[in-house]
Amino acid sequence: MPTRIAYEGKVEYLQILDEHGVLDEKLAKDTLSDEDVVELYRYMVKCRFVDETAFKLQRAKRMGTYPQNKGQEAAAIGSGFAAKRGVDWLVPCYRENAALWMHGQPMHQVFMYWMGDERGSKIPEGVCTLPLCVPIGTQMLHATGMAWAFKMRKEPRVAITYFGDGATSEGDFHEAMNFASAFQVPCVFFCQNNQWAISVPREQQMNSATVAQKALAYDMPCIQVDGNDLFAVYKASRDAIERARSGGGPAFIEAVTYRLADHTTADDARRYRDSEEVDAWMGKDPLIRLRKYLTGKGLWDDAKQAAADEAGRQTASDVVKAAEGAGVPPVTDMFDYTFETMTPEMETQRRTMRTHSLGQRPEQAGLRESAK
Amino acid sequence: MTTIEHTIELPDFSKPLPPREGDRVIQFREALREAMSEEMRRDERIFLMGEEVAQYNGAYKISQGMLDEFGPKRIIDAPISENGFAGLAVGAAMYGLKPIIEFMSWSFSLVAADQILNNVPKMLYMSGGQWGCPVVFRGNDGAGGQLGSTHSWCVEGLYSNVPGMKIAIPSNPYDAKGLLKTAIRELDPVFFLESERMLGDKGHVPPEEYYIPFGQARLAREGGDCTLVSFGRPVHFCMEAAETLAQSGIECDVLDMRTIRPLDIDAVIESVKKTGRVVVVDQCWPFASVASEVCTQVMERAFDWLDHPPVRVNTEDVPTPYAKNLEAAYLPNAGRIAAAVRNAVGAK
Ligand SMILES: Cc1ncc(C[n+]2csc(CCOP(=O)(O)OP(=O)(O)O)c2C)c(N)n1
Ligand SMILES: [Mg+2]
Fold first, then answer.
1. C-beta atoms surrounding A35 within 10 Å
2. Is A171 within 8 Å of B324 when comparing Cβ atoms?
3. Confidence band for B21, pLDDT divided at 50, 70 and 90
4. How far apart are CA A372 and CA A217, in angstroms?
5. What are the angstrom distances between the C-alpha of B35 and each of B102, B103, B136, B211, B328?
6. I need a labelling partner for A202 at 20 to 30 A (CA). Which of A272, A367, B90, B237 fits?
7. CB atoms B55 and A199 under 8 Å
8. What angle do CA A116, A117, A123 make, to 5 degrees?
């Protein structure tokens, strides 16, 4: 009996703006307008300033451990811009601050979060972003469930979930992908393949040639894009989001990018990465190519850059002021937000301002009823 | 049956050991490394697997230099798949290898719950005594200092409810080394709980090899007024409280349990019969905690000797807060322990 091919798959790679700032006009058609690009570049500059500021704050011991986003701005901004603000939901991990800010989550709240203040995760009314998710992989299932709820409620929304290359090794990733595909929910899986998971390089994390091909197993449309190319990220995201919105099911985007900074401020990547590799990627920085492109088109000049830098500095300083100005949260928060309805035990804990162990009288554990 | 070849004459492990000539002062993390390295040199079946353990020398530098010494076949960087490498360890152990699995944090072991709770401790029983799972799972446990509620798990309360595995929670470098060596020699699965907050702590460790048996508490301080029972990091809070209390004439026995499965309840009962009071300090949530278990067993076995109801000092019964001031209010500390003791002995 002759053999036949039971399944064949391929993964397309998309780049529109190359690292020298040269645009493929044909592919760029119907993507971003000149005004959009100028605006998004300004925003990117701002985000870079804010990110560097967070790093400095940590070094000055004014912030806890912080994972820098540096180098991955095009991935966050291109995808964030493709999603509808106030309609689509962003389900992040921790390296896509720019997308969250674009969708209305105040920048200073993300700072508060990394300063160790839960109030940073209190998302303002009307902003469609979930809190940061540091346990690797969990959020992808939440996004899938959320998208399923959109479908059940017949709301034309899409969930976009972010995660790293390393996260695709977790079972949660595969379970989310299978559910999303089997249930055909409007969920876009956006992988920021920044080549590293702390000290583990992508090639050691998996034996697959691309991350995107993992979607083939779930028969999910997938694409690999130059993640430092704003145009390609935007186009792939918009296509995936709009297809999902119109009932076309989930999609997978692998944004090939690079973590230009350490994993977090607690890491020193020089111990495990070659400087040649880092230098090569420095040249592919999304900001550099976008500036070259805009300058070449006559849409940008040094004066505009100076103004954008100044605005970036100002924003960063405002963000720090707002975050540090928030003061410390009241201790009672921990009792108030454990249950929707305060239980009698919790009420006692709150009143004594100290757990005495459950069931014990406070004075048994040497505690007095506190004044408050 | 566990067989341990003791290479030296065993000292009385129930008493604090005075430093001796020839001791080295090393960090907690070095003690853990020495334990693993010594056993690995002797037994080729042992391997260490986990996130960041090889190339990076461990997220907390516990396995520093081990990749160089043992090579990539035995010191293995795993993909970010906790359920994956926990389950792989089960299979490898069933086929004669001896895995040491490092969870960067026990908080991440929850991803592997089905493997470590539903398979590891039951495999021997379910196979009629045929396939055991002699795996050592180890990593950071407890609030590491502002890591937020998903990363601050104290798993002993939850996990000690499950029969079939042993749980060691050392409080100092000496115990860490001796208990980990015993853990690696164990034929049963061991959950070994370390604390990020103690990895830099220094202590005396003798030059020769030693093994600390499981199920033997250490009397860290002696006193006749109240028994303080704890394990892991809070033992230090108890010592601090006992020191303060001694200044006002209240003397405490401080028992460092070292392992909570098995639990050396005899040592607790013996002490309670002397003091008539017990305060159990546990950095887990209060409900159905190890502290609750100790108090129950004391009441069952020493009720008539008690002059005061047993007291638990746990955390608040809420998710571990991220904010510094909230986390401080949430955790047990020396002040709270001292207050509980004062109250139990009826002092002002
Ligand atoms: C369940 C779980 N396991 C391990 C960790 C520790 N950890 C934090 S970030 C990280 C690497 C993640 O790599 P990747 O998914 O590529 O994202 P990146 O940090 O590169 O953006 C690891 C292992 C965690 N937070 N959660
Ligand atoms: Mg990565």
1. 9
2. no
3. confident
4. 58
5. 14, 17, 12, 9, 33
6. B90
7. yes
8. 130
The pTM is what? 0.93
B104 lines ligand 1 (CB under 6 A): yes
Question: Rounded CA gap, A280 and A275, in Å?
Answer: 8
pLDDT digits (tens, 9 = 90+) for B66-119: 999 999 999 999 999 999 999 999 999 999 999 999 999 999 999 999 999 999
Q: By C-alpha distance, which of A182, A257, A259, A177 is closest to A222?
A: A177
What is the per-residue pLDDT across A23-64, written as a single tens digit (0 to 9) for each?
999 999 999 999 999 999 999 999 999 999 999 999 999 999
Q: For residue A320, is pLDDT > 90?
A: yes
How much is the mean pLDDT over chain A? 94
Contacts of B317 in chain A (CB under 8 A): 338, 345-346, 349, 355, 358
Helix axes A107-114, A302-325, angle to 10 degrees: 50
Note if A66 is an active site residue.
no
Q: Is the CB of B102 under 6 A from ligand 1?
A: no
Sign of CA dihedral B66, B68, B74, B79: positive
Contact indicator for A103, A84 with CB cutoff of 8 Å: no
Domain identity same for A261 and A342:
no
Distance from the alpha carbon of residue B89 to the mean position of ligand 1, in angstroms? 21
Tokens at A175, concatenated:
């379970």
Write the residue with the smallest CA distance to atom 19 of ligand 1.
Answer: A197
- Supply the DSSP symbol for B5: -
Q: Which listed ligand is nearest to A195 at the C-alpha?
A: 2
Q: Which CATH number fits domain B218-345: 3.40.50.1980, 3.40.50.920, 1.10.3720.10, 3.30.420.40?
A: 3.40.50.920
Is B151 known to be catalytic? yes
Residue A70 exposure: Cα atoms within 13 Å on the Cβ side:
19
CATH number of the domain bearing residue A136: 3.40.50.970
* CB atoms B329 and A338 under 8 Å: no
Contact at CB, A198 and B83, closer than 8 angstroms: no
CA of A192, closest atom in ligand 1: 21
* Residue A162: closest CA among A184, A147, A143: A143
Name the percent of chain B lying above pLDDT 70: 95
Distance from CA of A318 to the nearest CA of B (A): 22
pLDDT(A108) > 50: yes
pLDDT at A249 (0 to 100): 98
> Domain for residue A110, yes or no?
yes
From the number of C-beta atoms within 10 Å of its C-beta (0-12, 13-18, 19+), residue B344 rates as buried
CA–CA min distance A117, chain B (Å): 5
Residue B306, number of CB atoms within 10 A of its CB: 17
The packing angle between helices A171-183 and A138-152, to 10°, is 10
Domain locations in chain B? Answer: 24-205, 218-345
